[in-house]
Design brief:
Layout: H1 7-17, E1 30-35, H2 40-49, E2 55-62, H3 71-75, H4 87-90, E3 94-96, H5 101-107, E4 110-113, H6 119-131, E5 136-138, H7 164-171, E6 178-180, H8 186-200, E7 202-211, H9 237-248, E8 251-253, E9 256-258, E10 264-271, E11 278-286, H10 292-300, H11 305-309, E12 319-322, H12 330-333, E13 342-349, E14 355-361, H13 365-381
Parallel strand pairs: 1-2, 1-4, 2-3, 4-5, 5-6, 7-10, 12-13
Antiparallel strand pairs: 7-11, 8-9, 11-14, 13-14
Length: 386
């Protein structure tokens, strides 16, 4: 099945840079496990990690139903990536993420976790891995509100990694910790806010997100109700869109991440008939209103720690601004910079807010698996897996 685009480009990109990038201070590649390997995000992780210059896939795990089978048998027809699953991965044995936890933790340097379980079960699972001295890079929402668990967008709040020693103290670990990604829809508009917030101050924002079916782990084949339709509800998404940015913009105090008090964000989230790419219609008011030219310059000139460090998965240009009235579009622009860039367009003044504009990001690359890999690269460079 070839319903998703972007994998082949990103895979080719990582393959091409394998021989070009220095290995920093790494004597060998980190061995990584993928927990939840048969799901859509797990599949994305496989495509991104297969020829990664710093990480190698050493172990795959999923539910008890898949355990003991080859990945080819376990994933079967559920493989939905554009590129074929790598042959060596197809032959790997899938382990039970719960029953084989000790073996998994002892076999890898860290794990990526993207499981489909109840929230309390995920919290317990991830904390158990951390307590087994196995760092966890999580695509799940379970620990996003935990005060000493960093929720990192690498270009925006890399300093939140500094909370990890406090978390280790609470867990009683030397190596083990949990770091999480934010909600995938935030990856479209929060990056666009970053350079504006620091320079002009943001009072309030209204955001309407139009989210692809892959954000629900679906395709058009497995979600036929979305064809010729829009579903005006995605459970829990609006609360995440309003609350999670405040943690990202928060600061570390007394061993906890204290969320920011502002800006005030209100959100509506809709599921739309698009395969990949979350779009956001954004309305924003500032403490000090900038000009259009100042906003566009701020976007074009913005870069972060991943660009400074030249991390393998980092886009060269993080924020793109399109002058055309009909851009960005998911079909045309979601794969910019191998799916790791954020696209912005249609900036204009508004009658009730200062400005309004449109944002777009690839939800399973920048918003999920790719963002997790980039976060892992940031942490690896900082020595957190040593």
């Amino acid at each position: 099945m070839k319903e998703h685009s972007g994998d082949a480009a990103f895979y080719a990109h990582l393959t091409s840079i394998t021989m070009e990038l220095p290995m920093k201070n790494f004597e060998k590649k980190y061995k990584v496990g993928i927990i939840g390997a048969t799901g859509m995000v797990g599949q994305r992780l496989i495509t991104l990690l297969h020829s990664h210059p710093w990480f190698e896939i050493s172990l795959l795990a999923a539910s008890a139903n898949s355990a003991g089978r080859s990945y080819k048998e376990a994933a079967g027809k559920r493989w939905v990536m554009e590129m074929p699953c790598p042959e060596d991965v197809l032959e790997m044995t899938v382990y039970d993420a719960t029953a084989d936890m000790k073996f998994i933790a002892d076999s890898v340097d860290f794990v990526f976790c993207a499981v489909n379980m109840k929230k309390d079960e995920i919290k317990a699972l991830e904390e158990a891995y951390a307590k087994l001295e196995c760092p966890v890079i999580s695509n799940n929402s379970a620990h996003r509100a935990t005060p000493d668990v960093p929720m990192i967008i690498p270009e925006i709040n890399p300093e939140h990694a500094e909370i990890i020693p406090f978390q280790r103290k609470r867990l009683g670990t030397e190596r083990g910790f949990i770091a999480v990604k934010s909600n995938c829809s935030l990856q479209s508009y929060v990056p666009a806010f970053a350079p504006l917030k620091s320079e002009f101050g943001i009072k309030k924002a209204l955001v309407c997100t139009y989210q692809a079916v892959s954000g629900a782990g679906k395709t058009f084949e497995t979600m036929p109700e979305i064809i010729d339709n829009v579903i005006p509800f995605i459970g829990g998404e609006e609360e995440k869109s309003e609350i999670e940015p405040l943690k990202i913009w928060g600061k570390i105090e007394d061993g906890k991440i204290i969320p920011a008090d502002s800006p005030s964000i209100t959100a509506q989230c809709l599921r739309v008939p698009v395969l990949d790419g979350h779009m956001a219609a954004v309305f924003v008011s500032f403490d000090k209103k900038p000009t259009k030219e100042q906003m566009i310059d701020a976007w074009k000139n913005f870069s972060g720690k991943p660009q400074e460090l030249d991390l393998p998965s980092a886009p060269k240009q993080f924020l793109y601004y399109f002058e055309e009235d009909n851009r960005p579009q998911p079909k045309l622009d979601r794969n910019l910079e191998n799916g790791m860039a954020v696209s912005i367009g249609r900036l204009r003044e508004d009658t009730q807010y200062d400005y309004k504009f449109i944002c777009l990001s690839h939800n399973t690359l920048r918003g999920a698996a790719g963002g997790a890999v980039l976060m892992a690269e940031l942490l690896a460079d900082g020595g957190y897996f040593n």
